[in-house]
Specification:
218 residues, alpha/beta, Rossmann fold, seven-stranded mixed β-sheet, four-stranded mixed β-sheet, 13 strands, globular, GATASE, glutamine amidotransferase
Protein backbone atom coordinates (compact mmCIF):
# COMPACT_ATOMS: atom_id res chain seq x y z
CA UNK A 1 0.00 0.00 0.00
CA UNK A 2 1.42 3.40 -0.96
CA UNK A 3 1.63 6.30 1.45
CA UNK A 4 -1.27 7.95 -0.36
CA UNK A 5 -3.37 4.84 0.20
CA UNK A 6 -2.41 4.35 3.86
CA UNK A 7 -5.26 4.88 6.31
CA UNK A 8 -5.06 8.13 8.25
CA UNK A 9 -3.86 7.79 11.81
CA UNK A 10 -6.41 8.62 14.47
CA UNK A 11 -6.04 12.07 15.99
CA UNK A 12 -5.98 11.95 19.79
CA UNK A 13 -5.78 14.99 22.06
CA UNK A 14 -4.28 14.67 25.53
CA UNK A 15 -6.13 17.41 27.39
CA UNK A 16 -3.62 19.63 29.18
CA UNK A 17 -5.43 21.29 32.09
CA UNK A 18 -2.47 21.26 34.46
CA UNK A 19 -2.97 17.87 36.14
CA UNK A 20 -1.62 14.71 34.57
CA UNK A 21 1.35 12.95 33.04
CA UNK A 22 0.71 14.42 29.62
CA UNK A 23 4.14 13.61 28.16
CA UNK A 24 3.96 9.96 29.24
CA UNK A 25 0.48 9.69 27.73
CA UNK A 26 1.66 11.36 24.52
CA UNK A 27 4.58 8.95 24.12
CA UNK A 28 2.44 5.88 24.85
CA UNK A 29 -0.25 6.88 22.37
CA UNK A 30 2.28 7.75 19.66
CA UNK A 31 3.98 4.39 20.28
CA UNK A 32 0.76 2.55 19.35
CA UNK A 33 0.18 4.60 16.22
CA UNK A 34 -1.95 7.61 17.16
CA UNK A 35 -1.40 11.15 15.90
CA UNK A 36 -1.16 12.89 19.29
CA UNK A 37 -1.39 16.52 20.35
CA UNK A 38 -1.16 17.93 23.87
CA UNK A 39 -3.40 20.97 24.17
CA UNK A 40 -6.07 22.72 26.20
CA UNK A 41 -7.52 24.37 23.09
CA UNK A 42 -11.23 23.67 23.23
CA UNK A 43 -11.92 23.41 19.50
CA UNK A 44 -8.92 21.19 18.80
CA UNK A 45 -9.91 18.85 21.63
CA UNK A 46 -13.55 18.89 20.57
CA UNK A 47 -12.74 17.87 16.99
CA UNK A 48 -10.20 15.11 17.71
CA UNK A 49 -11.10 11.46 17.08
CA UNK A 50 -10.35 10.68 20.72
CA UNK A 51 -9.86 12.71 23.89
CA UNK A 52 -7.69 11.49 26.75
CA UNK A 53 -8.25 13.16 30.13
CA UNK A 54 -5.33 12.46 32.50
CA UNK A 55 -5.27 13.31 36.18
CA UNK A 56 -2.94 13.18 39.17
CA UNK A 57 -3.17 14.66 42.63
CA UNK A 58 -6.25 15.74 44.53
CA UNK A 59 -9.79 15.34 43.22
CA UNK A 60 -10.74 18.93 44.14
CA UNK A 61 -7.68 20.43 42.44
CA UNK A 62 -8.27 18.41 39.27
CA UNK A 63 -11.91 19.51 39.16
CA UNK A 64 -10.89 23.13 39.60
CA UNK A 65 -8.36 22.84 36.79
CA UNK A 66 -10.86 21.12 34.51
CA UNK A 67 -13.50 23.79 35.03
CA UNK A 68 -11.01 26.61 34.48
CA UNK A 69 -10.01 24.98 31.16
CA UNK A 70 -13.67 24.32 30.19
CA UNK A 71 -12.96 20.61 30.42
CA UNK A 72 -16.35 19.99 32.00
CA UNK A 73 -18.08 21.43 28.93
CA UNK A 74 -15.68 19.61 26.62
CA UNK A 75 -16.32 16.17 28.08
CA UNK A 76 -20.07 16.73 28.22
CA UNK A 77 -20.35 17.95 24.64
CA UNK A 78 -18.16 15.19 23.24
CA UNK A 79 -20.20 12.52 24.98
CA UNK A 80 -23.47 14.11 23.89
CA UNK A 81 -22.26 13.62 20.33
CA UNK A 82 -21.00 10.07 20.95
CA UNK A 83 -17.35 11.12 20.60
CA UNK A 84 -14.87 8.95 22.55
CA UNK A 85 -13.32 10.06 25.84
CA UNK A 86 -10.81 8.09 27.93
CA UNK A 87 -10.16 9.10 31.55
CA UNK A 88 -7.08 7.91 33.43
CA UNK A 89 -6.46 7.80 37.21
CA UNK A 90 -7.98 10.98 38.71
CA UNK A 91 -9.18 11.64 35.16
CA UNK A 92 -11.42 8.62 35.77
CA UNK A 93 -12.40 9.63 39.29
CA UNK A 94 -13.72 13.06 38.27
CA UNK A 95 -16.22 11.36 35.95
CA UNK A 96 -18.19 10.29 39.03
CA UNK A 97 -20.67 12.32 41.01
CA UNK A 98 -18.45 13.40 43.88
CA UNK A 99 -15.14 12.94 45.61
CA UNK A 100 -14.49 13.03 49.35
CA UNK A 101 -10.95 13.77 50.53
CA UNK A 102 -10.07 14.62 54.16
CA UNK A 103 -13.77 15.07 54.88
CA UNK A 104 -14.22 17.63 52.09
CA UNK A 105 -16.79 16.83 49.40
CA UNK A 106 -16.28 18.09 45.84
CA UNK A 107 -18.73 17.71 42.97
CA UNK A 108 -17.43 15.75 39.99
CA UNK A 109 -18.57 15.72 36.36
CA UNK A 110 -21.38 13.31 37.29
CA UNK A 111 -21.23 11.26 34.11
CA UNK A 112 -21.66 8.28 36.43
CA UNK A 113 -23.28 8.27 39.87
CA UNK A 114 -20.97 7.30 42.67
CA UNK A 115 -18.50 8.51 45.26
CA UNK A 116 -14.71 8.48 45.20
CA UNK A 117 -13.49 7.81 48.74
CA UNK A 118 -10.39 6.65 50.64
CA UNK A 119 -9.05 3.16 50.10
CA UNK A 120 -9.24 1.02 53.21
CA UNK A 121 -6.04 -1.04 53.14
CA UNK A 122 -3.02 -1.73 55.32
CA UNK A 123 -0.77 0.04 52.83
CA UNK A 124 -1.88 3.31 51.23
CA UNK A 125 -1.29 4.60 48.64
CA UNK A 126 -1.86 1.61 46.42
CA UNK A 127 1.33 1.95 44.41
CA UNK A 128 2.59 -0.71 42.04
CA UNK A 129 1.43 -3.56 39.86
CA UNK A 130 -1.87 -5.38 40.27
CA UNK A 131 -4.15 -7.70 38.35
CA UNK A 132 -7.79 -6.95 37.51
CA UNK A 133 -11.01 -8.90 36.99
CA UNK A 134 -11.99 -7.75 33.53
CA UNK A 135 -15.64 -7.40 32.59
CA UNK A 136 -17.12 -10.07 30.36
CA UNK A 137 -16.79 -9.25 26.65
CA UNK A 138 -14.57 -6.27 27.44
CA UNK A 139 -13.22 -4.46 24.38
CA UNK A 140 -10.66 -2.59 26.46
CA UNK A 141 -9.05 -5.78 27.78
CA UNK A 142 -9.40 -7.80 24.56
CA UNK A 143 -6.36 -9.97 23.93
CA UNK A 144 -5.07 -9.64 27.47
CA UNK A 145 -4.26 -12.68 29.64
CA UNK A 146 -6.14 -12.93 32.93
CA UNK A 147 -2.91 -12.48 34.89
CA UNK A 148 -1.85 -9.28 33.10
CA UNK A 149 -0.70 -6.61 35.55
CA UNK A 150 -1.27 -2.86 35.44
CA UNK A 151 0.37 0.03 37.25
CA UNK A 152 -1.66 1.81 39.95
CA UNK A 153 -0.86 4.90 42.03
CA UNK A 154 -3.81 6.08 44.14
CA UNK A 155 -5.18 6.46 47.65
CA UNK A 156 -8.84 6.93 46.66
CA UNK A 157 -11.22 4.86 44.57
CA UNK A 158 -14.83 4.07 43.74
CA UNK A 159 -16.00 1.15 45.86
CA UNK A 160 -19.57 0.71 44.60
CA UNK A 161 -20.95 0.78 41.07
CA UNK A 162 -24.29 2.62 41.27
CA UNK A 163 -25.44 3.15 37.68
CA UNK A 164 -28.48 1.09 36.75
CA UNK A 165 -29.48 0.70 33.12
CA UNK A 166 -33.20 0.02 32.85
CA UNK A 167 -33.56 0.52 29.11
CA UNK A 168 -33.34 -2.80 27.30
CA UNK A 169 -32.02 -1.00 24.22
CA UNK A 170 -28.94 0.30 26.07
CA UNK A 171 -25.99 -1.97 26.65
CA UNK A 172 -25.05 -2.07 30.35
CA UNK A 173 -21.66 -0.59 31.24
CA UNK A 174 -18.76 -3.03 31.48
CA UNK A 175 -17.11 -2.64 34.88
CA UNK A 176 -13.69 -4.10 35.70
CA UNK A 177 -12.60 -4.55 39.32
CA UNK A 178 -9.33 -4.84 41.25
CA UNK A 179 -8.58 -5.40 44.92
CA UNK A 180 -6.22 -3.61 47.30
CA UNK A 181 -7.47 -4.16 50.81
CA UNK A 182 -10.98 -4.04 49.36
CA UNK A 183 -12.52 -4.25 45.86
CA UNK A 184 -12.65 -1.07 43.80
CA UNK A 185 -13.55 -0.06 40.26
CA UNK A 186 -10.46 -0.43 38.06
CA UNK A 187 -11.98 0.40 34.66
CA UNK A 188 -15.29 1.18 32.98
CA UNK A 189 -16.51 0.93 29.39
CA UNK A 190 -19.77 2.80 28.86
CA UNK A 191 -20.57 3.74 25.27
CA UNK A 192 -18.18 6.47 24.17
CA UNK A 193 -16.85 6.93 27.71
CA UNK A 194 -14.05 4.64 28.90
CA UNK A 195 -11.82 5.06 31.93
CA UNK A 196 -9.10 3.33 33.96
CA UNK A 197 -7.99 3.85 37.55
CA UNK A 198 -4.55 2.50 36.64
CA UNK A 199 -2.07 4.12 34.27
CA UNK A 200 -1.97 2.29 30.91
CA UNK A 201 0.80 4.63 29.77
CA UNK A 202 2.99 3.21 32.58
CA UNK A 203 1.85 -0.42 32.26
CA UNK A 204 4.28 -1.69 29.66
CA UNK A 205 3.05 -4.07 26.97
CA UNK A 206 -0.28 -4.64 28.74
CA UNK A 207 -0.98 -0.92 28.80
CA UNK A 208 0.06 -0.54 25.17
CA UNK A 209 -2.45 -3.23 24.21
CA UNK A 210 -5.21 -1.39 26.07
CA UNK A 211 -4.43 1.88 24.31
CA UNK A 212 -4.37 0.04 20.99
CA UNK A 213 -7.77 -1.45 21.75
CA UNK A 214 -9.15 2.03 22.52
CA UNK A 215 -7.71 3.60 19.38
CA UNK A 216 -9.28 0.85 17.27
CA UNK A 217 -12.71 2.02 18.43
CA UNK A 218 -12.19 5.64 17.34
Amino acid sequence: MSAAQSPARKKVVVFDYGFGNVRSAERALAHVGADVEITRDYDTAMNADGLLVPGVGAFAACMRGLREARGDWLVGRRLAGGRPVLGICVGMQVLFGRGIEHGVETAGLDEWPGTVGPLKAEVVPHMGWNTVRAAADSQLFAGQPADARYYFVHSYAVHDWELEVGNEHLAPPKVTWATHGEPFVAAVENGALWATQFHPEKSGDAGAQLLTNWIRTL
